[in-house]
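Hi U.,

Before I forget, here's the chain from the pilot set. I'm dumping it here mostly so it's searchable later in email.
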Amino acid sequence: MEYAPIAVFAYRRLGHLRQALDALFKNPEIKRSKLFIFSDGPKNEKQVDEIGLVRAYVSCLDHPELKIISSERNKGLSNSIISGVSSILSKHETVIVVEDDLVVAPNFLDFMNRSLDRYAPNKSILSVSGFSYPVAYPKDFSQDVILTQRFSAWGWGTWKSAWDNTDWEMKNYQSYARSWRQISKFSKISPDLPWMLHQQISGQIDSWAIRWLFKHFVKDAFCLMPTRTLVKNIGLDGSGTHGDSLTEDSMLRQDLKPFMNIELPDFPIFDRMIAEHIRKLHAPESFIGKAKSFLKRLFLRKGGKSLVFAEKFSNSIRKR
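Structure:
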């Protein structure tokens, strides 16, 4: 089995990056994998020194096939990942992606490489993630992996055949936005997704992940992940570019407990009960939250003309 090249995306958080790379280097496969470190440029003069420290550190790493790609200008995380992953997949069939605030388990690369090799022929799987959502699995659930419609960007991998021809410009968005059935179907994966997608289209956020997740939705495809997490995010401290709509506490409670000898079945399953658990993790719990979610979906149905009103109205309810 040929090991997938690894892409690490770094910015200016040297402390986080040290922990991420220390954990990654505890994976035996790292020495036999090509390692690409993408270092984004500064947004302002204040960040020049911080980024300089990051680049000095990675230049001293002991790795036989290390390549550092430094950007003089600030691309932003979204553009960095799209261009970086695309550049690797222009020459390789697979890639594993880790950001600078992700600490991985010692068998993360083993799981990722075996999964990318095993499920390459399965066109219903577009990605593999080492992260697992904190859900309670049934006692009789026997598989070590699951299929989920909600892709996770916390330590993931994919194939060239899946990544190529992704609609990053979202040219097919309007046909989706005109269909209440499609919006409703998308919200059943997680109720926050239609709103996040609208925010991307309207320029309120810049997220490669929501666009990549939307491709999973359009293709009726899945992300494969283990039933116990192999990845922990240490960046939920306000220092990162993007947060997550999932409650931070539930993420921070997840420890990287030993989870070795992960079995990869011929036919991993999509369990609707587990999917509902994952949906609830991202669902608003309060009545006000449910009302806000409904208003967002309602105005999305109308082409987004009243989205600002929906946001102001739902926020006014919260204040009462």
